[in-house]
């Protein structure tokens, strides 16, 4: 009985002394970022919604048509749809009839990604789950008439060890409540109170995501969005308080300053080491985040530049979030699937230099361009990984940043033999690469050398 009382006392003390985060940035920014995010490095982004039906221009189609009135978009609608056609008429066409979340989960698992972020609501306001806060403008009431968010969350958790995240746009282009708040110079918060915040609480409580990727914040401050109050609840009392990760898009005065990790701008890639954890969200289709029917082969990023972007991002301490746009009928276009599976094959060989890595003292090489470094603590000391984007024609590659020692060992990830090297006269080392049969090459596109026992 005494042991039970003692246990209860310890439990009570633990609860009473647990950190409570206050609804201000000084307190919220002090919360440690859950380790899974930094360890994982690579995520998949999915832009999917009613905009996937016209699939013309980009996911900003509605705004381009009736907000900006871009001539090409206006002409597209005139030539292909009746005069009284509205954007809402696209929703019944968003059927997702071939949507197989198990298949999606398998593709993402094969890609080597460690987290997935699904668009639950973009700026058009259509919710991809049967929400209580958007009557007849959600996937439960119209179009797919199913829970697109919950189905993917269940498949990912059932079939993979990937973390599931949700993208949510806080504003909506043409929502009357938001437009009224905007007309009031954001001195009223009817849209926040009745729409956007209830959605966020609902997403967290219903789906318990590991990551919230907020967006649509840029028109006004975090005070209007009640962002710090929401984050304090998220960190203190929500069902995901111990594992949740968030980005920085909680208001124009919070972006690139506050939150969990920093997204700053789309395709943010500073190219140098940053003081805080950051993410490079980028898209495989060079011209759109959502699916485009007019996408051409040359519009899609190739594997060489994609993997170079991966290495550059991770070398500088970032994560990379790679976007693909599914079709309105619920399939990942084959060219996107091919890119993801090819990345997975490459990571099977070179993942040692990616997952759980940390930036080295040098991010890129001091002499040879295109070479990026990562590092780890190995069993016998620090290990440095050097990625090279082109296979050397003369059988030699010079690395200017590492300082070799008498115990230095050089290997190529995925290849069983040790390589000879010569120390440079004024530092660095030249790796000598013997002829390798094409069938014995460990991978394509980018190769990673493992350096053990270097002085620096």
UniProtKB/TrEMBL annotation:
UniProt GO BP: fucose metabolic process; glycoside catabolic process
Ranges where the Glycoside hydrolase family 29 N-terminal domain occurs: 18-352
Cellular component terms per the entry's GO annotation: lysosome
Chain positions of site May be important for catalysis: 281
Gene Ontology MF terms: alpha-L-fucosidase activity
Presence of the UniProt keyword Protein biosynthesis in the record: no
Domain Alpha-L-fucosidase C-terminal: 363-452
E.C. designation(s): 3.2.1.51
Domain of life: Eukaryota
Keywords: Glycoprotein, Glycosidase, Hydrolase, Signal
Leader sequence residues: 1-18
One Pfam family this sequence matches: Alpha_L_fucos
Function summary: Alpha-L-fucosidase is responsible for hydrolyzing the alpha-1,6-linked fucose joined to the reducing-end N-acetylglucosamine of the carbohydrate moieties of glycoproteins.
Family: Belongs to the glycosyl hydrolase 29 family.
Name under which the protein is recorded: alpha-L-fucosidase
Organism of origin: Patella caerulea (Rayed Mediterranean limpet)
